[in-house]
Amino acid sequence: MTDFSSLPDLALRTLGGSVIAASDESFEEKENLINPWAPKFSPETFGAKGQEYDGWETARRRPDENGHLGHDWALVRLGLPGVIRGVVIDTAWFKGNYPPHASVEACAAGGYPSPAELEDAAWTEIVPKSALQGDAAHEFKVDVERRFTHVRLNMFPDGGIARLRVHGEVVPDPRLLSGLTIDLAALENGARVTECSNMFYSSPDNMLFPGSARNQAEGWETARRRDRNNDWAIVRLAAPGEITLAEFDTTNLKFNAPAAVTLSGRNSSGQWRELLPKTHLQPDTRHRIRLDSDAEVTHVRVDIHPDGGLARLRLWGSLTSAGETLLTSRYTALTA
């Protein structure tokens, strides 16, 4: 995989993405494009429209009276607007019915526009018309330093695509965060896990996802330790801020929850300080703990003792003036 594959999938349905329109979905629904799981396939599962696929599939196009064939397209609203670093177009299981070519465009639109309102948007081509193969994941690096809110997948002329992944860096609108109590560790606000000791079962970024984890796989879980050390993860906050309430959620972790947790914070000078001493945790429980600290922090380190996992990590607080300035300047630079 390329270096952008570790970045969040900005279009993922779990993160709020939606396929809001498509030119055609005669065989398989457009919504399948952004499902979080890997594409599945069961041979000889025929419905009223033919073999069933876990993807988006359109009807066969025929030239019109002028010989024009046209092409199919799907319009996706990103769940997390941001800078796109790479796109994956996956034709998994589509072997005789994949499109020979595809391209991707992106635009930035304020508010919540309808598909019709996006027709006249300023679209930028981020993946030029490129050849595709059947039953393969195609990775395309994107080098456009702008914040986007929507993408349009074009396939030429028709066929099936299993998944569209849009990896990038979240760029929140500071007007929705300034002056409010927010989750400074939320992925949707721009936070990221930058380092961790172990991610054997699942990614630590899962802790920062919105909503509640439905099962163990939707949180962070480490392998069993056989030494005297403990597991940990470092989170870069959405922006410099002051944390007033920490939430350590072990929901669904019944026999693999950590015995205890500690929390440390790092300031802009790189100095670490304790925010929460070693605190006992219970399995399958949401723990909410008020922090007695007004220190500005840019990163936190959460240590779980000795191992196990967390379903979610929430760090409620507010941006400092430095944090508001940082978010505003980045947003302005990427939307100008």
Automatic annotation (TrEMBL):
It catalyses: allantoate + H2O = (S)-ureidoglycolate + urea. Transmembrane segments: none annotated. Belongs to the allantoicase family. InterPro entries: Allantoicase (IPR005164), Allantoicase_dom (IPR015908), Galactose-bd-like_sf (IPR008979). It comes from Actinomadura gamaensis. Pathway: Nitrogen metabolism; (S)-allantoin degradation; (S)-ureidoglycolate from allantoate (aminidohydrolase route): step 1/1. One of its GO terms (molecular function) is allantoicase activity. Gene3D superfamilies: Galactose-binding domain-like. PANTHER family: ALLANTOICASE, INACTIVE ALLANTOICASE-RELATED. Keywords: Hydrolase, Purine metabolism. Residues 16-170, 190-318 form the Allantoicase domain. Its EC number is 3.5.3.4. This is Probable allantoicase. It is an enzyme of class 3 (hydrolase).
